[in-house]
Amino acid sequence: MKDLKQSRRAWEEEYRHVNWGGPRPISGVEEALAPGSLVLDAGCGNGRYLLPLSKNFDVVGTDISVNALLKAGQYLEKGGSQAGCVASSITHLPFADNSFDAIICYGVLQHLFENERLLAVKELGRVLRTEGFLFFEVFGTDDMRFGGEELEKNTFCRKNGVIYHYFTEEELKLLFRVFDIKEIKSTRTEKRFRGEIHTRHHIKGIVQS
């Protein structure tokens, strides 16, 4: 099983090649939070959400990859925005208890083993203020990429060394059981790949501390 150092190396290499891809929509976050809220982008990568978040909120991004954070900083500068960028594992966040009004965690929990997912959710809850919102998104088990070398149940390793876990809605309800679950919802879309139609399966959720 991969350790933290191996995971970090895999992501450093991944972000040598990952392109920007443009900012991602954050409409659901904007509707739920007051302008100026202090927001943590946990696992911010190269800043696809960090940049749009910085337009309306005080935001801090963390990521295990220094290469990702360097790219995020460059995109923020080009976009005329500012945000804190901190190198950190999501399982050990360098922030005090009750630090943030809200947290977004998009496309991150799916790259962790079971014990790491439990630690990460505990850490996210620790740094989230009372009645604060946590927004998350993960891959579901119906996704086209499901499969490969299985290391744990529904958890696989790609050739690049990156771990992928695929969730069910029931599993997420159990993982976030100590929170007030506002929404957990699956979205399935069709994607054409090499002339064939495949399914992309994402699960989004909103929970409150």
TrEMBL record:
Residues 40-136 form the Methyltransferase type domain. Keywords: Methyltransferase, Transferase. GO terms for molecular function: S-adenosylmethionine-dependent methyltransferase activity; tRNA methyltransferase activity. Coiled coil: none annotated. Gene3D superfamilies: Vaccinia Virus protein VP39 (3.40.50.150). Pfam families: Methyltransf_11 (PF08241). One of its GO terms (biological process) is tRNA modification. Transmembrane segments: none annotated. PANTHER family: ALKYLATED DNA REPAIR PROTEIN ALKB HOMOLOG 8. This is Methyltransferase domain-containing protein. It comes from Methanolobus zinderi. It comes from the Archaea.
